[in-house]
Design a protein that fits this description.
about 220 residues; about 0% strand; mainly alpha; Cytochrome Bc1 Complex, Chain D, domain 2
């Protein structure tokens, strides 16, 4: 064997340099959230693409600071500064890959009727606002910090509402989603989750632009 640099030794190829782009830097996210944040078949890993940058940023900060608890996310984000988290959020917000085809929702017809009523009308007698009031009439979200609700599986929506109900997921105070979720009964959570999961996702639908509209209650994350 010839020593490095000796006559006749073959030069070693230089290590391949990866492009210094945000696309390359967020490759660790692909395994769970899909290429460009498109989403995957796993019910608990949601689509990131196209959600408002402000919303994604708040979630990244919440995972980093422990307000949302999922150990892989808590670990990966533990030492990332705010500015870098915002760049990650902006990257995924700008993506628009085709949505995954959603599986059919096999739930009782009355449950879907109840879910549709709560999503579109709320429960006025208990001062629970309609989901569409904040998340938009098309439920595609609203800039800067309100996410779309389409393209999510029923079990995922139910799990997130449950996490808010029991304080496992929190947002910037005043935490309007905690108040709303805690006001819903278990059957109402199931109905809302089933109805949202039954809705189709139209390609190219984007969150509504920020507008000076009064929300039905104070919400700290809508900034």
């Amino acid at each position: 064997m010839l020593a490095p640099g000796a006559a006749g030794a073959q030069p070693q190829p230089a290590a391949e340099r990866l492009p210094d782009t945000m696309e390359e830097r967020v490759r660790a996210c692909i395994g769970c959230h899909g290429v460009q944040g498109r989403g995957v078949e796993n019910v608990y890993f949601p689509r990131l693409a196209g959600k408002p940058a402000g919303y994604l940023y708040h979630q990244l900060v919440a995972f980093r600071d422990g307000r949302r608890k999922y150990l892989p996310m808590n670990y990966m984000l533990a030492y990332l500064p705010d500015g870098y988290l915002m760049k990650m959020a902006e990257y995924f917000a700008q993506q628009d890959p085709p949505p995954l085809r959603q599986p059919a929702v096999n739930r009782p017809a009355q449950q879907l009727v109840d879910g549709r009523r709560i999503v579109n009308e709320g429960i006025p007698g208990r001062k629970i606002p309609a989901c569409a009031t904040c998340h938009g009439t098309g439920l595609a979200g609203r800039e800067p910090g309100i996410p779309g609700l389409l393209g999510l599986r029923a079990d995922y929506v139910s799990a997130q509402l449950g996490a808010w109900r029991y304080g496992l997921r929190t947002a910037i105070a005043p935490d309007c989603m905690q108040v709303i979720a805690a006001s819903l009964t278990e059957p109402e959570v199931a109905a809302v989750s089933a109805w949202l999961a039954s809705l189709p996702v139209d390609p190219g639908v984007r969150p509504a632009r920020a507008a000076k509209v009064a929300l039905p209650m104070a919400c700290g994350s809508h900034r």
